[in-house]
Structure formats: C-alpha cells, structure tokens
Please model this.
Amino acid sequence: SLKLPRPAHRRIMTVANQKGGVGKTTSTVNLAAALALHGLKTLVIDLDPQGNASTALAIEHRSGTPSVYEVLIGEISIADAAAVSEQSPNLYCVPATIDLAGAEIELVSMVARESRLKEALSNEALDALGIDYVFIDCPPSLGLLTVNALVAAKEVLIPIQCEYYALEGLGQLLRNIDLVKAHLNPALDVSTILLTMYDGRTKLADQVTSEVRGHFGDTCLQTVIPRSVKVSEAPGYGQTVLAYDPGSRGAMSYLDAAREIADRGTEMESA
Ligand code: ADP
Ligand code: MG
Model:
C-alpha cells in the first residue's frame, strides 16, 4: 500500500460518544495503528479510567505508572508519560490508570479545569516527540474528562454503532460540543463520523447507515467498519487487529478509514 500523506499541521482528534460500547476505543487504537504503520507518528491519549486503550496497545497501566492522571494534575509532562508501543516505533500511548477515576472530581476545584489537557498538549511537547496525529480516547460520559478532550482537540471523531438506538443521545453530545465551541474552543469541528460494527446480514444496519449518512453527509466516512470476531479478539492479545490478523476484513477496513482520514487532512490544508 502507498504511503499516507503527512498532514501539514498536526491533527488532534477527540474520539467521543457518551454511549459505551460503540467502538471508541477500538477505533482509536486501530486508526492510530494504521497511521503509524504508514510512517506517521501517532499518539494515543487514554482518557478513560478503564484503561482499555492502554490494554489494547499492551502499555503498562498499573496504578502508579506515569499516566494521563499525573499529566492532568500537572505533575509530569506528556513526554514523561508517553510510552512507545511494541507494535510500532511510531505509535505512542499515554496510558490511563485507575487513578484517573478520581480525576473527574479532583479537577472540579482546579485552576483552568477544562483546559488542563490542552495545556499539556502544547506544541513544544508534541514537537519534541515529532507527533503527526493525536487521538484522545474518551470515557463514556460527558464529564470534565471529555470536556478536557474537546478543549484540547481541533477535530471530533464520533463512532456510531450500526444498531437500533444509534442516533439516540447524539443530540446531547452535539449540544455539548457546541457549548465547548461557543465558550472554550471556537476551532472545534465534528470532522469525522465512523460507522462501526456493521452487520451486512441485517436490514437494520443498512437503515442506520443511510440514516446517519442522510444526517451527516460527507462528514461520515465512506468506509464502514464491519462487525468482526477478529476485531474483538485482538485486544485480548494486547494487539490491534492490524497486528493480530493483518489480512482480516476488520484490519483492511481500519486501514481504509485511516487513509480516508489522512486524505481529508490534505484537503483541509488546501481548503
Ligand atoms: P467503547 O470504547 O465505545 O466503549 P469499544 O471500542 O470498547 O467501545 O467496543 C465495545 C466492544 O465491542 C468491545 O468488546 C470491542 O471489542 C467490541 N467491538 C468493537 N468494534 C467491533 C467490531 N468491529 N467487531 C466486533 N466487535 C467489536
Ligand atoms: Mg472505550
């Protein structure tokens, strides 16, 4: 496969949807791995106390490990917390430990509580690591951690599961994004919708797909991620599906989605 274009400016994408189980973490780690495979330096920030992205990338995240928690409270820098994954020398991860579970409450009384991640993701910090892409994997809520992610990013990627209640709750997420945009981060944009867990055998999946496309138009990627056992098995081996089964439909679809995202980045630059 051909090399993917390097973005002219670093892209910071927050992967958000307050619903759990829609494919935020799966999409974060697999898109990041796909970009890294093509030579782009990619950083995953695990912002979910569950630490699923850290697990999927086989990054140490026992309590006490330098993590995003210490970054948010200002104890350490992003560079101090970032670990290189075994999958690729281009793929970094700032892990989440269980210590992050208390951060939502601790942050409330802190100065500039909404922009602590943004401050940590300064140009100098990311330049030092040579990062092209940052993906922030959000917890399934719209609390202060997700707000920090929305303030730190320029783009939002919303994974939508191809199932019956797919669009339910999306209005609340979009309103929150608008609030952040109005008050804290005017540059924020929902740049990407990714349909996940598509099951071609069901009529419902097609209905949801066309409903989402009707609603979001070209913001929705052409690539749809199929429901695939390989995708769900991979994290159990501390691997992305790209490493676990490179030829699988799941791996190919995440490579395709990453290519679309990278190509759009070059369109954004010239627009
Ligand atoms: P979220 O981060 O939004 O909570 P996850 O990415 O953890 O969602 O996905 C929820 C569950 O669905 C996980 O067990 C994951 O392995 C599984 N899953 C995600 N994407 C797929 C897929 N394309 N095919 C099969 N299983 C998937
Ligand atoms: Mg998750």
Summary: Residues 24-25, 48, 52 surround magnesium ion (ligand 2) (CB under 6 Å).
